[in-house]
Design brief:
Blueprint (H helix, E strand, L loop, with lengths): L5 E5 L6 H9 L24 E5 L7 E5 L11 E5 L3 E8 L7 E8 L2 E4 L30 H4 L2 H8 L10 H15 L5 H11 L1 H5 L2 H11 L6 H45 L9 E5 L2 E5 L8 H19 L4 E7 L7 H20 L3 E8 L19 E5 L12 H7 L6 H8 L10 H6 L9 H17 L6 H17 L5 H10 L4 H10 L6 H5 L1 H7 L8 H9 L2 H8 L8
Parallel strand pairs: 1-11, 1-12, 4-10, 10-11
Antiparallel strand pairs: 2-3, 5-6, 7-9, 8-9
Helix pairs in contact: 3-8, 7-8, 8-9, 9-10, 14-15, 15-17, 15-19
């Protein structure tokens, strides 16, 4: 996985995605403490362990892990997990009756964004703190308010290497000598700044501690070089006089910035402010998001607000230069509009994290088809910024050759007239294309369509029996052929059968429509399964459609539908 790229982790319901997320949410600073309810079979004897292998800038792979006694993961990655916070709630009322009556409702649990709100420092960081130092030249100091209230700049400043040297007397002896010379100058601010540029700029550049701060200022503003050093001096002085107060100021400004973003985010996402009240409150040193009853909101609004509040909490939680964000199926039950909104807000969150100079790994656990996200706000359709990972991997023969290769080559000039008509659709004639198959690197035996049918239906039967070594792609092809054969057998006249195989040869749906128009019976499940077999038999570059189809076919409902299809007697 690559940092700052979106990763979809796809698996069917029941696979264990929430257990995966639960394991990461159970990480403690020095160990992994997973509740019994999340352990395999709820058995404490089944010990859990998380392992991550990572590499930085071409360095050798490094293994970090967490178990009951150790946690080396948290030394490298900050971890956050987002999941649904909608819970059932029962309120009892027995004041006027001998019987207790429980009233059920859905609530979104309040979310604590900040456990301990940082205290406001006793002293603000402002230019007025330093003007007396320059005597009559005090008016030359630029106002530092925009820097003092920029938590990104403050964080970068406090992370500068060798910052502690600003407490050393040898450094301040050089700085104070320059300040003394400047303070004796007279004239306008412009005149004095010009004098500094001519007479003192070289000396200022020679002090690394000030030069580093001035260089950092250049990343945030296009000031004159003299002004950069004058601002650098003010922050250097603030650090020298009371570095702890400066650190407290940074924590306070960071809190205010993020709190304001949270308020604006919830406000922008609330499409019904007249009756849906979302509040962010400071209560007992905590910052808390409170929601109304879930019943007064649509399901999409409810899940979207829950997601946004958790994103805000994550922003307060994550620290350091590397982080892993796990989103557990929050997208899976949103309508299209709120799905788009949710993805947009997550993309903005990741952009914010990246702008802070950090690297984040956003992992989205879902049972949905990855195609749903291909044209989304996350840009998951762009190969360079996203990756799809199918967790339920199944290695079968079609992954390396066979049917998968037939799908890729089906539009080749020599193969196109035959593969679609005789192999991937039902046709009563035994088409012999062995020579063409061999010329294109395909299996010779499958060059006869009946041999191909025999193979896919053998796998079809294994699939219905639940065999672990099933070729799922072959079983999927057999599903289409069996559905078409079921409809074909309802046609009594030779001319109708010929039209079925030759005229309606562009898709199974057309064939089923034709049979129904003649009074035939087509089960609804046969049409629903088109979502399955139509996907796999048309090649999509850069898409692992085999893993996707395996994931779908392992769903119990789909297995049930396929098991109801009559197996053609011929096979």
């Amino acid at each position: 996985m690559l940092g700052n790229k979106f990763h979809l982790l796809v698996a069917p319901n029941g696979f264990g995605k929430s257990s995966f997320a639960g394991a990461f949410s159970s990480l403690k600073p020095k160990s992994l403490k997973i509740p019994t309810s999340l352990l395999h079979k709820n058995d404490e004897a089944n010990k859990a362990r998380i392992e991550i292998t990572y590499a930085i800038d071409g360095e050798p792979d490094t293994l970090i892990f967490a178990d009951e006694e150790n946690n080396t993961i948290s030394n490298i990655f900050s971890i956050a997990v987002i999941s649904s916070k909608v819970k059932p709630h029962a309120k009892t009322n027995s004041a006027h009756s001998q019987f207790v009556k429980a009233i059920a409702s859905l609530v979104i649990e309040p979310i604590v964004l900040v456990e301990n709100i940082p205290r406001r420092p006793a002293k603000s960081i402002a230019t007025s703190n330093f003007t007396n130092t320059f005597g009559v030249s005090e008016n030359i100091l630029p106002n530092i308010q925009s820097f003092a209230e920029n938590y990104l700049w403050l964080g970068r400043f406090l992370s500068l290497p060798n910052l502690v040297r600003l407490t050393q007397k040898t450094v301040w002896k050089k700085i104070d000598a320059i300040v003394d010379d400047v303070s004796r100058q007279t004239g306008t601010a412009v005149d004095i700044c010009k004098w500094i540029e001519v007479n003192k700029l070289a000396q200022l550049r020679s002090i690394p501690e000030l030069q580093n701060i001035a260089a950092l200022i250049s990343d945030f503003s296009e000031l004159t070089e003299v002004d950069k050093f004058l601002i650098a001096y003010q922050f250097a002085k603030a650090y020298q006089e009371d570095k702890e107060n400066l650190k407290e100021w940074y924590a306070w400004i960071t809190y205010l910035n993020r709190k304001d973003r949270c308020i604006q985010l919830l406000k922008s996402a609330n499409s019904n402010p007249d009756w849906i009240e979302l509040s962010i409150k400071e209560t007992k040193s905590k910052l808390v998001v409170e929601f109304p009853l879930a019943t007064i909101m649509s399901n999409g609004q409810r899940d979207l607000f829950s997601l946004l509040a958790q994103l805000m909490k994550v922003e307060f939680q994550l620290s350091g230069t590397r982080a892993i964000l796990i989103v557990d199926e929050v997208f899976d039950y949103l309508d299209e509009c709120n799905l788009l909104a949710a993805q947009y807000y997550i993309s903005k969150f990741v952009d914010q994290f990246k702008s802070d100079g950090a690297e984040i790994f956003p992992l989205f656990l879902t049972h949905l088809d990855p195609d749903i996200f291909r044209h989304s706000a996350l840009g998951l359709g762009k190969k360079d910024i996203r990756k799809v990972h199918h967790l339920d991997k199944f290695i079968d023969s079609s992954k390396k050759a066979g049917i998968a290769k037939m799908v890729i080559l089906r539009d080749e000039t020599a193969l196109k007239p035959h593969i679609g008509k005789y192999f991937f659709h039902y046709h009563p004639d035994n088409c012999d294309q062995e020579t063409v198959f061999v010329q294109n690197g395909l299996k010779k035996a499958w060059g006869k369509s009946y041999n191909f049918y025999k193979y896919v239906f053998a796998e079809f039967k294994k699939y219905r029996e639940g065999a672990s070594d099933t070729d799922y792609v072959a079983a999927c092809v057999a599903t289409r052929i069996a559905i078409e054969k079921h409809s074909f057998d309802q046609l009594a006249e030779l001319e109708q059968r010929k039209r079925f195989t030759d005229e309606f040869n562009k898709g199974t749906s057309d064939k089923l429509d034709f049979v129904e128009s003649l009074g035939g019976m087509v089960p609804e499940s046969h049409r629903l399964l088109g979502l399955l077999y139509n996907d796999i038999l048309h090649h999509k570059p850069n898409f692992d459609y085999i893993s996707a189809i395996v994931s779908k076919m392992k769903n119990p409902a789909i297995r049930g539908m396929i098991s109801e299809i009559p197996v053609p007697k011929l096979f």
